[in-house]
Every structure is written in C-alpha cells, then in structure tokens.
Design a protein that fits this description.
It contains 5 helices and 5 strands. By secondary structure, it is α+β, with helices and mostly antiparallel strands. It folds into 2 domains: 3-63, no CATH class; 69-132. The chain has a 3-stranded antiparallel β-sheet, covered by helices on one side. Strands 1-2 form a two-stranded antiparallel ribbon. It is elongated.
C-alpha cells in the first residue's frame, strides 16, 4: 500500500470513527468533516479577501506599462495595401512605412502573406538596430 493510500485510509478510518450529525432529510455527515474547516463567515471573509487581491492584481496589471508589446507595434503612418489577383489566385501585400523601404510579397493567403511582410520588416528593423549599436 502506497503512502497516499495509507493516508487516505487513515482519513477514512478517522471519519468513520467520528460522531455523526444526522440532518432532518436523513443525510449524515461526520463531525470531523465540520471541525476541520473554518466557519461559514470565516470562509466568506477568505473568499472576499481573495477577490480583493485578484482585483488589485488585475488593476495593477492593467495600469502597468507594457514596453514589450509597444516594441512590436508598427510605427505611426504604416499602411498595408492588399490586392487580390483572381487570375493568378494570389494576394499581393505591400507594407509602406514613411522613411522605411517598402516591403512587398505575394502569396495564396492574405494573412499568411501579411505575416511574411511583417517578418521582412522585423528582419530589416533588427539589421538597422544591429548597425546602430
């Protein structure tokens, strides 16, 4: 018998040996089940305290600056131009940013092609940042 099984068996034996409370409906509950817990008002206070901590944490998270997300935003004035060519069954996506070379890619899916363009821009941006350092 494992340690967990032994502990479970010991708890069951203690519960079985404990005096029982019989409710009007006929259900029984071991007194040990009630004595090992906080009273309903203490449990309610603990729940309220946890909710207050969660609200504070959530508010702190919302008020916190997120420079990581800002670093991945496109600069002001950036524009995507998407054109679909039905005969070729492909999308042409162009990313134009003032002061930056224009990036163009073609692909069968609009979102996939935008992802390729974004990767091209990020690669160019990393090369520029590497050259500046």
């Amino acid at each position: 018998m494992s340690v967990d099984q032994q502990a479970k068996a010991a708890r069951k034996a203690a519960r079985d040996a404990s005096p029982k409370i019989k409710y009007r409906c006929g259900h029984e509950r071991a007194l040990i089940d009630l004595t090992n817990k906080d009273c309903p008002s203490c449990r309610e206070k603990a729940v309220q305290a946890k909710h207050a901590r969660d609200r504070a944490t959530r508010a702190e998270r919302l008020n916190k600056e997120v420079p990581f997300a800002e670093a991945f935003r496109l600069p002001d004035g950036a524009a995507y131009l998407k054109t679909y060519d039905a005969t070729a069954k492909e999308w042409t996506v162009t990313l134009a940013i003032p002061g930056v070379p224009t990036f163009t890619a073609k692909g069968s899916g609009s979102f996939r092609t935008e992802t390729v363009i974004d990767a091209m821009y990020r690669e160019w941006l990393a090369a520029q940042n590497g050259a500046m350092q």
